[in-house]
């Protein structure tokens, strides 16, 4: 009886040790997988940078509405402004103003995004410039730069009504293309921007309104989502 008891005891002890080893292996594999995902993805994107970029975009859209003397609630298309082709205010034509406004919004959004992302990376003890961040940047810029050149050609030939929808479409494609090297939420934002751009092609003349929704409102919404999900 005593022999059987000791045999049973050692069998149980061996089983417990095997279970502990198995649990340790599972934890180690989960840790390795987590480290591999962090090394292959750029996770220092800050939700606050999205919120700030959205606010800047809304301010840029508001400046255009003030320049044109209209608002998104009047139902007037921007080119319904009297003599739109030669419209001039504040000492500059509308093409010059639109270009300067867009460049200012872009520069501010990039600067703010860099600031918050750098701060988040520093807080987490990570580097901002990594192989994954460079892959993200290159995959993001290919559709974005192509779209920028395409929009310049549209402006050159006078197709102003589809510039804003084209910007949303190419921006959405850029987000989708770069999302495999960062957070999955970016892919969903890309699909939303792409949808808004395609929808805007059905409502030519209201591109500025869709632009404000896509680059302004949606950035704020997704920025807040990312902040509460990842940053806090």
Write up what this structure looks like:
By secondary structure, the chain is an all-alpha fold. 75% of the residues lie in helices and 2% in strands. A two-stranded antiparallel sheet has the order 1-2. Strand 1 and strand 2 form a beta hairpin.
Helix content: over 70%
Q: Report the sheet-strand fraction.
A: under 5%
CA-atom Rg in angstroms: 26 Å
- Main pleated-sheet profile: 2 strands, antiparallel
How many domains?
2
Total helical elements: 7
Poorly predicted runs are: 28-40
User: What structural class do the secondary elements suggest?
Assistant: mainly alpha
Mean pLDDT: 76
The ordered H/E elements are HHEEHHHHH
Biggest β-sheet: strands ordered side by side in the sheet: 1-2
User: Would you count the extended β strands for me?
Assistant: 2
**Based on CA inertia axes, which overall geometry fits?**
globular
Span between termini = 60 Å
Kindly summarize this structure in a few lines.
This protein is mainly α and 232 residues long. It contains 7 helices and 2 strands; from the N terminus they run H-H-E-E-H-H-H-H-H.
Q: What is this structure's SSE topology?
A:
Blueprint: H1 2-40, H2 47-68, E1 88-89, E2 92-93, H3 94-123, H4 131-156, H5 163-178, H6 184-200, H7 207-231
Antiparallel strand pairs: 1-2
Helix pairs in contact: 2-3, 2-7, 4-5, 5-6, 5-7, 6-7
